[in-house]
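Hi V.,

You were right to ask for the full record rather than a summary. Here it is.
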Amino acid sequence: MKNSSFNAFDHVNQGTALHLFQDSLDPIILTDRSGTIVKANDRTVDFLNFDRGQLTNLNIADLFQAGQKLPDFSTLPAGSLQVFDGVIPGRQDQDLLHMRVQATHYTLDDTDIVQWIFHDITRQVELDQLRQDLAAMLVHDLQGPLGNVLFSLELVRNELPEGSSETLRSMLEVAYRSSQHLHSLVSSLMDISHLEAGHPLTDLMPVDVRDLVNYVLAVEESDLEQRGIEPSCNISLGLPQVLADESMLQRVLINLLDNALKYSHHGQTIAIKAQLEEESHRVRFSIADQGQGVPEAYRDLIFEKFQRIKIGSSSSGLGLGLAFCRLAVEAHGGRIWVEDAPSGGACFCFTIPVAEDNTSPSVGIPHN
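Predicted structure:
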């Protein structure tokens, strides 16, 4: 018996609509509200390990790997749109295909129809994996030699004779700071890998906020002076300690301060604040610059790995610093975001639970 939903497609299977449906470069499948397939275009048959006869009356879930969560349109109104990534088996000579799917619920002649448009992102996923493998290899290969360089530079600094030239001391200091910066980047790459894999934080302890901020300002003192940037520090009195991995939290603040420096000009101010959010029992940190700010459309994207947003003439970096900050803050049970600063620049904010909170923070990032 012919599926009654086909009656709704009598309007679709005419003229331009039918032409666009069949000739689309992307696979398109039409189902009823329960997910039963009633129609598929030619591109779908080319992609999938089913012929057209097999496709009809299968459920859309049968096309995906077992366990794939699909949108449930049984209770959603017409016009609902869902976008998700999924994996489907290709033809017998192909590996699994990674697809980005746009599912839209329509109503045609009182019949509920769901249109599923598939866009092949397999190559993009493979490139992302290659990029992650390369980063992991670099981290592994750099860790040992870099540790030796830092140890040697520290030894030379301590053993430098009295009366050595200021030029020599200055060059040595530049080499040491640059090596420390590289070491911080390698550590952040390692932490990104561990946090994405869902590894929990194991070095949580009470951390004094004022000491934390003072340490970061001491590390960044030379860069702030060279750029002619005046830091403004406002730490609320009586602020409780936070429950954190101190080294990781230091690097979060250093990354955010480095980011603010990148978009600041001589004579401007970077404002660092820390205050208690009593309702959430968290300490809120903020670092605000007087630069160009972050357009609202980019405020989520900038926290993704390898994403570099060109703002003005600056787009340098690997796009890892803010990604590390997001993973690190969320692993502590906090959140991070960016908003407009009072001065018109960007204000990066994040929260960390206070140490007195007996509720265990959500540590680690679930593996997707």
